[in-house]
Amino acid sequence: MEKNWKSSVKIFILISFLFSWPIMFMIDGFLIHKLIANEKRAIALIILLVGHGLAMFGPMIASVLVQRKYLNKKYVFWTWGSIKNYIYIFLFFLISWIIPGIIGVLMGKFSFELNVENYYYTYMIIYLFIVPFSGIGEEYGWSGFLLSYLPQFIGRTKAIILSGAIRGLWHLPVLIGPYIYAYVNGSKSLIVLILMFIVFAIQLTISNIFLGAAFSYVWFKTKSIPLVGWFHFVVDLMRDFLTIIIIGYASSTVAMLFAQIPLLMIGSVFLEKTRKNEKINLKQNFVKK
Length: 289
Description:
The chain has helices at about 5-35, 40-55, 60-70, 85-105, 120-150, 150-170, 170-185, 190-220, 225-245, 255-280, 280-285. By secondary structure, it is mostly helical. The chain has one domain (about 5-285). Helix 4 (about 85-105) runs parallel beside helix 9. The relative contact order is 0.14.
């Protein structure tokens, strides 16, 4: 077993964050808010999309550099997988996101009317070209590297938990960015900023352990980066397209949470099954230590 596996993982995390965080902090913590304040919403939306798409390649870049520079190994398996799996994933998440919308429409909460500005169409066209590749960029690191490299040292269960926590914290600038902008402009205090930083860090860590476990399920079943990347793309697509443009329930926290229940269930069931197979006592491993 490699004695320096922890160092390799730390270097991977460092490169991922150093590449992605400056982009996300600049966009989510300053640029888009400045553009919106100047009534340039269309430009802000496009920059947000392109910037996030670029940042999503951080884990891939980190994976390639660590494997070639420090490990001299290749852990990513580039197999396409069965076309039926791509179809199943799309249909599953289409249904899981549409059902809350239909319920909302029946209750008079939402509408299927396409009442959006013209620039949203440009946004979605760019989205459909960028995000599929960006999803692969993320999963190249989270699944292709971490979930291939870590299990041999700490087992699958702990690898899923650790990679999910890293995945979650990597997304932190997206949520904390608006609070940084508000603090700089004097509308939020430093105490509020610090508290929200802690809250979001905890929330992202916990939620992405289970969300990451769902991605892990597809990865361990297929060992296909394109398929896991497609999984990632479909999840983002349903969230960003259906909730904002078609149904418009992005402002409803209840509907958004309900739509993600299937994904969380997949992750929690797979994580528990993996834990039982490895006979790991998570309480003993993570609480008592």
